[in-house]
């Protein structure tokens, strides 16, 4: 059964808090073929959700759909952030109400310094964290503020991409494979930062091939397989369930 909750009021079941980000019955297409279907899940405010699944399962498609990117095309369903209908918005509007997508390739702007990359994010209101607050969280970026962003190491570029999302008035951070290609000690550093960001009340959805690392960080997990959700539960449940791990995550 898939009864549509009243998202405009925040759907409030007796035993659960109202969801902050709700994806309901979403279907997304690239061209002619649908890539994800029947996608329904909730994320509570301040929670970290790991969105997992094998290569090609539809994780990036799901994140891009939530961020309202031009492609894929969302043809069905609803997406709500804090009682606001994201499914009616452009990517710019979604960003202005607090959705921040950090794509897999990080998209640092060439020709601009670290600081200019951050300042550019602060041009459009509503502005989020100040440079001072960002440099406090990312001392490595403070040291390299005058360096061209694209010349940073992979880990530093990931930090810059996250900092740039915070420079907008961020409510939900959508991370697409943030640990990809990074040494374990750098992953440790980024993970520590993500925990601090959580303490500041920001909600995070993390997509990661490194499922164990993501599950150690996350409160809850959703697993996708060939475009549909096959599991929705706590991160601990996934870590304890060998069958689930080997069937869908190959860990
Ligand atoms: N731009 C695109 N055009 C057509 N098909 C795409 C496009 N991007 C992804 N796909 C297809 O959609 C499916 C899901 O891809 P994706 O969401 O990138 O998976 P994941 O991030 O889980 O690895 C794959 O079969 C992929 O080939
Ligand atoms: Mg992907």
From TrEMBL:
InterPro entries the UniProt entry points to: AAA+_ATPase, ABC_transporter-like_ATP-bd, ABC_transporter-like_CS, BCAA_Transport_ATP-bd_LivF, P-loop_NTPase
Protein name: Amino acid/amide ABC transporter ATP-binding protein 2, HAAT family
Any GO MF annotation of the entry: ATP hydrolysis activity
GO biological process, one term: L-amino acid transport
Recorded superkingdom: Bacteria
Residue intervals of the ABC transporter domain: 21-251
Keyword annotations of the record: Amino-acid transport, ATP-binding, Nucleotide-binding, Transport
């Amino acid at each position: 059964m898939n009864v549509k909750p009243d998202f405009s009021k925040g759907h409030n079941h007796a035993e659960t808090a109202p969801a902050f980000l709700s994806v309901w019955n979403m279907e997304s297409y690239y061209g002619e073929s649908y890539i994800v279907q029947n996608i329904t899940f909730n994320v509570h405010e301040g929670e970290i959700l790991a969105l997992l699944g094998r290569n090609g399962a539809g994780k990036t498609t799901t994140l891009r759909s939530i961020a309202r990117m031009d492609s894929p095309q969302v043809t069905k369903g609803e997406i709500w952030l804090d009682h606001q209908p994201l499914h009616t918005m452009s990517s710019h509007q979604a960003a202005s109400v607090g959705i921040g997508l950090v794509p897999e390739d990080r998209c640092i702007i060439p020709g601009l310094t670290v600081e200019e990359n951050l300042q550019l994010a602060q041009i459009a209101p509503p502005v989020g964290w100040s440079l001072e607050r960002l440099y406090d969280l990312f001392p490595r970026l403070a040291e390299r503020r005058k360096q061209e962003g694209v010349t940073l190491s992979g880990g530093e570029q990931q930090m810059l991409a996250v900092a740039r999302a915070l420079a907008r008035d961020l409510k939900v951070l959508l991370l697409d494979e943030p640990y990809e290609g990074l040494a374990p000690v750098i992953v440790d550093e980024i993970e520590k930062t993500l925990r601090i960001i959580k303490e500041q009340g920001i909600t995070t959805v993390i997509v990661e091939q490194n499922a164990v690392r993501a599950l150690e960080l996350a409160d809850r997990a959703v697993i996708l397989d060939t475009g549909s959700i096959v599991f929705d539960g706590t991160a601990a449940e996934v870590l304890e369930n060998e069958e689930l791990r080997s069937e869908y995550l190959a860990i």
